[in-house]
Structure formats: C-alpha cells, structure tokens
Amino acid sequence: MNAPDLGELAAQLRVDSLRCTDQAGTGHPTSSLSAADLMAVLLRDHLRWDLARPGHPNNDHLVFSKGHASPLLYAMMKAAGVITDDELLTCRRFQSRLQGHPVPVLPWVDVATGSLGQGLPIAVGIALAAKHLENLPYRIWVLLGDSEMSEGSIWEAFDHARHYRLGNVVAILDMNRLGQRGETPLGWDSAAYAARARAFGWRAIEIDGHDLAAIDAAYTEATSTSESPALVVARTVKGKGVWFLENQRGWHGKALDGEDGAKAIAELGGSRSLVVPVHRPADLVPEPFAPAAPLELPRYERGDRVATRKAYGDALAAVGAARPEVVVLDAEVSNSTYAEVFAKAHPSRYFEMFISEQQLVAAAIGMSVRCRVPFASTFAAFLSRAHDFIRMGAISRAKLCLCGSHVGVSIGEDGPSQMGLEELAMMRAVIGSTVLYPCCATQTAKLVAAMVDLPGISYLQTTREKTTVLYPDDEDFPIGGSKVLRESPDDSVTVLGAGITVHEALEAHERLAEEGIAVRVLDLYSVKPLDAAGIRAAISATNGRAVVVEDHLAEGGLGEAVFACLGGEEPIEAEVAHLAVTTMPCSGTPAELLRAAGIDAEAIARAVHRLLAEPACFMCGAPASWTIMLAGEDEAISEEYACDEHASGHRRITKWDGGAPAVPTHH
Predict the structure, then answer these.
(1) Are 132 and 165 members of one domain?
(2) d(CA 402, CA 330)
(3) What's the pTM value of the predicted model, to 2 decimals?
(4) Most buried by CB count within 10 Å: which residue of 163, 229, 267, 511?
(5) Is the pLDDT of residue 299 over 80?
C-alpha cells in the first residue's frame, strides 16, 4: 500500500474531525483542525504501531493530553484503518466507543484524558517503565494544548522527565494561541515556551506547525539519540483550513451546523478515504521479570505494639519478592510511610516522585498501562492534591494501589495541616474503589497482599501511632468483611470502628464491662465494600442501638457508610450515635486530641450510656412505657415516648392497635 500524500492526509483528518462533530452536533473541531498537520506527519512517518496488536510490547504510545481534540484522534483511527467511517460518525453518541474525550474502551487509547494537564505526567510513568523496567526503545508521544501549559502538573512532569533522563518522551505543543474564552497567557510566544522547557533540561524545537517538512524534521531531531526529553513547540492556527474559523474567538467547543459544516468540508476538498500503512515496531523482548518467590508476609506477636505504617512497608517488601510486577512510588516521605523498606529490598523497582503528588499518581497510572502493579504512598492529607488524577485513573480503568499514612487527629503534635481527615470521603466517592483501614500490623500485612489482586483503585489508610497487634498470623481478612472482636448474648449496643478507633472501642468495652454493661465491638477494616450483612445483624442483635466512632470528619466517612448500609431498599430501625471529628483540631498528644474530638474510649462509653438511658414521656417526663405516633395540625408525623396515662389519653394518637398504643417498648 502506498503512503498517502501528507497534505491530503492532513485534509482528511480535518474533514473527518468536522464530519463527526457536525453529526454529533457537539465537540471541539477547531482544536482538532489546528493539530491535523502535526498528527498527519506523526501517523504516516514516525509512529511505530502494530495496530492489529494493541498490546504489542514495542508499540509507541500516543497520549492526547488535550483530550478535547478527540475528533482528530478518531480521524486518525479511521485513517489507520482500525475504525470504520460508520463508527467515526457515532462520535459522542450514547454507548459509542468514541466518547467526548478519549477513554481506553478503545484498545489504542491507553488512558482517559480531558482533564487538562494529565497526559504528560502519565507519559512520564510509561516512559519510566520503558527505560528502567523493560529496556525497550518505544516512544511516548504526547499532544499538548497551550492552555494546559498553565497547569502545575505539566511542570511536575517536565521536572521528573529531566530527572530520570527520559529521552523517550516527545511532547508536541499545539500552540494555537486561543483557549476556551480567549488568548492563552503566552499567545504565540514560542520562544518563551522553549526557554521554559530548556530551563527544565529539555530539548526544545520551534517550528511552524503547518509546515509539513519542518514538522518531519522536528520529529527526526526529537527522536535522535539522546537522554533528554524533547518539546516540539509548533505555532499553529486554531480552525486551520477553514477561512471563517481560522484564528477566530468564540468557536471553542462548538460544532458547525449543517450549512457551515458543508461549506467548511467543501473548502477542505470534501471527504476522503485514505488509509495509512502505519509503520510496525521492532519485535524486541522486554527485560524479564525478576524471579518470583513464595509470599512470606511479616509476622507479629499478638500484644506487640507496631505502627500500621511500618507494617505497610514490611508487607510491601515481602509482596515485592513474591510478585515481580509490583513497583512502588513515593512522594519523598518514604521514611515516614515506610516505603523505604521496599526501596532497600528492591531498589530497581522503586521510584522517587519527590514532593509532587500529582506526578506520583500519574506515574503510577502510566506504570499500570505497562501491566505493572503500582503502589503509591504519601501522607493521606496530601493525596487530596492528586484527587483529580485518582478520579481520572478510575475513568482510565487503571490498576492503582494507594496508601495514605498519618491519618486522623491521632497523629498528634504535627497539627491539622498533616492530618488526613477527608480521605475516606474522597476515596469512597471514586467509582469502583476499594477502601481499607486496618487497625493492627497483622491486618495491614494481609490487606497489602490482597490489594495486589484487586481490580481498579484500592486505598489503604495507615496510622502514625503504634497500635496493639490484635490478630494472629493465620487470621484472614476478606475484602468486604468485618471482624467481631467482642460479643456476648447480653450485648446492648454495637460499637463500630476502624483503624485507631478500634482500640478505643476495646478500651470502652472494658470500662463498660466493669459497670455490668455488655457491648459488641466490630472492626470495620473494609470501609468499601462494607460488610452490610454483618453490620445489620450485629445492630439488630443489640436492639437497634449502635455507636460509630471514627478518626475522620463526620462528612463522608465511616459513619455515613454505616448509615447508608442501614438504609437502602430494606431499611432497619436503629438508633445510632456517630462520633467523629467535628471541630478544627490543633497540636497536642494523640490522647489529648482523641479526647478533644470526642472519639476516645471515654466518649464511646458516654455515648453507650446515652443510648441506654430511660426514655421520658413527651408530656410529663415520667418513665415511658410506650412508643406512639403523633400527628400535628399540619399532619406531620413524629414518633414519641409516652407513659401509660398519656399514651392512651392524648388526642393526637394516630397509631392504634385494639384500643392500645401499637408498639410497646419496655424499659
């Protein structure tokens, strides 16, 4: 098959970008038109792709960081012969593979993009795998928009690509001057972009992004033997090829209507059906995995005091020996998260991301593209900086194992800036996520081992303080399970906790037992999925009374997870006290801070006492014997307690059974 003329190929890419967005009535055609020449040269002459084998280990990777230019990507797919013209015209339609921004339901798309500033950081992770794990020469090509050059994550990627000398990364900047609402900060100042790139240790090549020969020469230079990544700064025109769109404001994100679309397509010479014979990659063999070994998790004696963050590091090293696909990344706190234990045991599979949490998660996503199992760790509070990358990682169907250490007020004197108090809410809200919160070293080690085989994004919280080892080495912790740590036939309240609050619940259990009050204690180590059946059974067995205690803000954490499990299609009646952090913490000892937040053993015991207090009649305050339903003048229904006299005589009783109040509650 003869290679098509580059000018004709670029025109076809422009026409097809217009056709699919015109058909959808929505999309970003002008952002696609500006980069069509850049992608035509790349597709025909420089990309190395075995399109019949999307998983070929030597394939180049193409990341559309400016994901809104997806019509151009889909036009390339058609020109490469991997999608039909009929499928092209389903762009943005319900259940089409060609979504509004790229997602990896298309096998030639590695990751979801569209949230700007993510493509280049993810490319760094892919490039790290190529150079440091696989020893393969494939390249990672990234199409950048000039608007996203304002994102801090882009410059985190520039910095890390220089540090790791990733000469296999070629970024192509489509500098078309116009963003969504107007001109970008640098406009067409290509020298400024080039200077910034060079300041970060990159090679920078400035070109006219519509000069096909210059584009070809730039790509050849960018892929010359070098350990420095390259940025091609291409001056382009938004809407290029259509006179009434070129360099005009107000067209971003707007499809053309039928008449304008027909005029634009005619100006570009009409539809074409060129097919490009894409170059195949070399058939090289990746660096083999290190030999695997049987899994030997660390062992801890019951009663010993070990921080779960230390157990995380110990378990990582053990899992790394058994599973050579495991890699670990950390954000320069490995001596606090204890990822350093893995780094010492398996230095070739450890990657330092420094204080760049967005790059940390992005690189992990890139590693997952290359079928690694990445563990990424930092302080839980700082993962909030990377939340958008985590969210997009879920859309990418990425496999990520995240660990956030130093959770809750129990970290002590460092104060609220270091306290992870929002992460359960943040991670529970991620689609398809698994959220784990171990309370002791043995449990942590088992859950770390389980995370390796979990799909999607899993998140484990670890505690700074040393906690007592509660479980024997042979205990299993199934995902979605819970553990009953204390129970008896006389239990009157269920106390539910996770992590540090499990230990406070056990202390409260002992205090209450001395008073003759029996309570059941549940360890909810699996926050998502939650053991709904176990929770409902325990609370039902304790007369519908429960205390949920968590070292987390009240919003979105363990308590709300429990409330959701008690509701649903078949709700159960329950009286639940929710103890959580509700005011701004400060510095102090862990014990002082747990007490001040009202989540220590004493607070749990007080909550149990409140739940067991005798109810009083809503009329006279006398000891109550009945629960009744009342209707006010506005017909609103309320449930109240009443004594014998006022239960039978009050005129607003609406729920009645044979002349007596319906639901007797004997105390």
Answers:
(1) yes
(2) 10
(3) 0.93
(4) 229
(5) yes
